[in-house]
Amino acid sequence: MLKPLLALTAGLWLSNLHAAAAVAVPLTPGLTVTTALLEPGRGDYESTKRLDARQGAGWRITYRATFPPGRAAGSTERVDSLRLQSDADLQKATTYRQMFETGVEEDYPGTTALGASTQVLRQLKQQGKSPFRLVESVSIFPAAAGQDRALGLANLLTEGEAEFKGELKKLKSLTVPVIVNGRVQQLPAIAAQGEFTANGAGRIPASFVFLDDEQNPLALRWSIGKSTLSVVRIDWPKADDAATLNSELTQRKRITLPGLYFDFGSATLKPESSTALKTIVALLRKTAGPLRLEGHTDNIGAAAANQALSLARVQAVKAALVKLEPALASRLTPNGFGAARPVADNTTLEGRAQNRRVELVLP
Questions:
Q1: pTM (predicted TM-score)
Q2: 8 Å CB contact between 224 and 184
C-alpha cells in the first residue's frame, strides 16, 4: 500500500488550509519560476525556468541551474537549456518531463515542462484521479540493491533517464507559501500522489502539489524517489513594478528587491536579473538621497563565509545598478549581514529562500 509522502506535505504550508487570496500567475514573457533542492552539507541549489517569448503556438523556456561542487565529478556543473513548450500540450499532455539537458534546444511533443496540463488538473479536481507519466533521471531512484538494475535498459529513453507511468490521485486542497514578486503569498493548490512503473519493472512513489489554476497548473512541490523539490520564488515583470516598489519603500522604509538571481554560493548575478535591475533603477530615480543595500543569507555554512557572501552580492547589485545609472554610485551603501537577521525558519527550503535576500533601505 502506498504511504503518503509526509515530507512533501509537512511544514508551515500544510497548516494553512484556509482559503487563499486569489493570486493569478500569468503565462507571460518574463515569468520566472525558481525551484530549490537541498544538497545535504552544501546548501540549497536553485534552478530557474523562464518564459522567454512566444514561438509559434507555444513558448520558449530557458532553464538554468548551477549545481554545487562535488555533485558532478567534484566540480561545479552548469546546465543551460532551451525547451519549446506548445500550447496544445499545456492543455492536454499527460507526461511531465521535468528533466532538462544542457546545451541543446529541446522539443518533446506530448509533454509539459512546468507542471501538469489543464486536463490533468481538471481531472484531479472533478474525478479525483488522472493518468500521468513522468520522465525523470535514474539518479533520483532509491539506492536499494538492484533497484537501478531492475529498471532494465529497455526502460531508458536516453542515457540516464526513464519514463514512468501510473495514476495520480488527489489528496486534498491546501495553500502553499511562495515568494511572489518579492512578497510571500499563499497560493491555492491541489496535492496528489501515485505510484509509477516503467514497463512493469521498477516502482517509484511520487507526490505533487500543483497550483490550482487551470490556465497555469505549475508544479509547486514534488517528491520523486530520493528528491524533494519546492518552488520558492515566482516573478514576472509588470508595468507598474517601479511605482509599486516606491510606494512600499515610502511606507515601510525597507523592501526586499524581487527578481534578483545569483549562481549557487556566489555573487554572480544571473542573466534573469536584467529586468529587475532596470526596474530598480526606475525606482531609484523616483527617490532622493542616500540608501542602503543590505544582503542576507540562510544559515547553511560558516558565519564568516555567509557574511562575506552577503556583502559580495550587494556589491554586485550596486555595480550592476551603477553601470545602468552612474549617478547611483554615491547614493548606495552596501552592507552584508550574513545569516544574522533571518525573517523566516531556516529549517525549511521555503524559509531559507526568504532569508536569502537583498533589501533596499531608507536610512
A1: 0.86
A2: no
